[in-house]
Amino acid sequence: MNQDRNEQPTQLDTPYLRLDKAQFLHNVLRLRQRMESHGVALRPHLKTVRSVEATHYVLPEKHSPATVSTLKEAEVLAASGYREFIYAVGITASKLPRIQSLLLGGVDIAVILDSVEQAKLVAAFCQKSGCVIPALIELDCDGHRGGIRSDSLLLVEIAHILQRGGAEFRGVLTHAGESYFCQSEQELAAAAKQEVACARRAAKMLADNRIECRVVSVGSTPTAFSGEEYDGITEVRAGVYCFFDLVMAKVGVCEPSDIALSVVTSVIGHNVEKGWLIVDAGWMALSSDPGLSSADEKDSFGLVSDVNGNLVEGLRVSQLNQEHGIIEHEKGQFDLSLLPVGTQLRILPNHACATASMHQTYHVVDVDNSTETWQRIQGW
Amino acid sequence: MNQDRNEQPTQLDTPYLRLDKAQFLHNVLRLRQRMESHGVALRPHLKTVRSVEATHYVLPEKHSPATVSTLKEAEVLAASGYREFIYAVGITASKLPRIQSLLLGGVDIAVILDSVEQAKLVAAFCQKSGCVIPALIELDCDGHRGGIRSDSLLLVEIAHILQRGGAEFRGVLTHAGESYFCQSEQELAAAAKQEVACARRAAKMLADNRIECRVVSVGSTPTAFSGEEYDGITEVRAGVYCFFDLVMAKVGVCEPSDIALSVVTSVIGHNVEKGWLIVDAGWMALSSDPGLSSADEKDSFGLVSDVNGNLVEGLRVSQLNQEHGIIEHEKGQFDLSLLPVGTQLRILPNHACATASMHQTYHVVDVDNSTETWQRIQGW
Fold this sequence. Notes:
The structure is a homodimer of 380-residue chains. By secondary structure, chain A is an alpha/beta fold. Chain A has helices at residues 21-37, 52-58, 71-79, 96-104, 116-129, 154-165, 185-208, 221-224, 246-251, 283-286, 352-356, and strands spanning 2-4, 16-20, 41-44, 66-68, 84-87, 108-113, 134-139, 168-174, 215-218, 235-238, 261-271, 276-279, 303-306, 311-320, 325-329, 344-348, 361-365, 371-375. In chain A, the strands form two sheets. Chain A has an eight-stranded parallel sheet. In chain A, strands 11-12-15-14-13-16 form a six-stranded antiparallel β-barrel. In chain A, helix 5 links the parallel strand 6 and strand 7 (134-139). In chain A, helix 5 packs parallel to helix 6. The radius of gyration of chain A is 22 Å and the shape is elongated. The interface between A and B is large, with 60 and 60 residues. Chains A, B: Keywords: Lyase. Chains A, B: This is Alanine racemase. Chains A, B: Pfam families: Ala_racemase_N (PF01168), D-ser_dehydrat (PF14031). Chains A, B: GO terms for molecular function: D-serine ammonia-lyase activity.
């Protein structure tokens, strides 16, 4: 870990990505304790943090289960001693040699798939290579993206293809992607129940066909905070809870004050006529992620706090160019002279995964103002 | 230059950023020749390519003028021998020491500003340090973002503040940011005229007050292809013309076939019920840039071509998650079995600057299928 206790974050050139370490640790602990109290394992999705240093805090041990969205994440984390992954993006034949290398290196990594076609590809690879690739079937619990319905006999067919081919059929996995659009506690609770019910139904159907699911995996940050009953579920996955963001605040699983991540920016100009504050954080620092704004709302690419983290009511990032952001007040004109050129502000992200992805490093600030620089894993 | 003529791009793991070298060189030459025929200098904006290797082709010589959007670009390019920059984002005091270091290293780099406040900051720094910082005043030619109106006496006031403080007042600069929304050749021609007229008016007003503008700088890719008359203009700036993208095709300054940049992706699944093709290029590979889609159009995050670069009519990227893209056909259902899991496709970017910014490297493919890897400059 690259520690530099003399470097003050206010001396860094803007824009930069700031991580409040205490808040990050608080967030990590909050979900860990919730899952412990429910007696179900947590398998954090590391696509949010994408950092070895951050992973040291997110995963309790080197053998703790983790989820990744790229093989690069698994490879870099494996080189740091982590041993237990699900690669949670549908597998293709071209990526199997890298899976094999990881397995040969003593890393447990499972792939996911949702078609006979993919099962045949994996089985053929296992047969040819002698490599026993663990595979999970992705279930569709809410029509969000991909996956197989939990009552489809395809599940049995795919499990058989994998087993016959010398792969390891390990279980089922689902993700309540639609839970990001929940608007009440009732909807969240229902999404969590539906996710669990879907996984359980698939596992039962497979068991009825004498196929064991060692892993029955569910999860998303909204449902991970909303589920109450996990019988038959072996693990819960979630990622963005480590940092939280404005989308999660809108969904209702955190407050804006729980957001550990921000982009520190400087005022670089004023458009007095239009009441615009111009800052040096454009989409290059924030991403263009629109968050969850509905059609009747104005665009917002982030809310604004002062350099100490106090939300400045009424301000929002209304437009982005590559290296320019425009901040407006909901009431139109405001006293721009209160925020002269050079003033530093923090932008709270719509989507922490997307904002963090625009940066190579985290500038991590602890409660005593000591800082560390954490590297983000880059690429695929 | 990292050349590897054995590496075939089809063997790379997807997603990756592919640059068609011949098309890139064609695009670079096209604007260079246009500006040469108009007798005005071209100052390419390197924020698009952000790569030393690409810059070798974009700039004819090490002393050729260039525009940058971050000091990091200037620093990395200066280390490769490039010598002549405008940092085209409003300057703040905290960035002046890095400007000074570049100047002391024999690099010519000018800053831009659009307020008395900033002029005083620059003047104070010059007075204290003895460093003569060249500065341009940013003009507002179309109400796009920042800048001072070309008829404002503030221009004279700011030039005097700079000169008295020991800075070098070097001229004026404007950017027709609204030209991205032009919908006809007439509108483009008008935007180009307005940009030139604005800069010329400001230069004349300053000259009338015995202040010389050594630099009178205009530019944007749409106006750079639309202007016909550059009297009194010393240079034209443009960036995205090097790659082109779907926004520029919509604006009308290129065809989709002129786009040199694409993201190569693999089909990783099908949602047969919904008629969705699922690919391994999400916003992490494409960015979330929405392009120029109007309210009555469906969202599109890119168009789709086959692996040989032939546009597949009717397909568009309709939704993005972190590592997943969803491709739909404009007619709804289509024969997904024609594109089985593992099929490679290319996604043409809405906004080349944004899509390229999601990657660390370009996989550059020449007409003989030889490839090179070019590094992108990262961070600020």
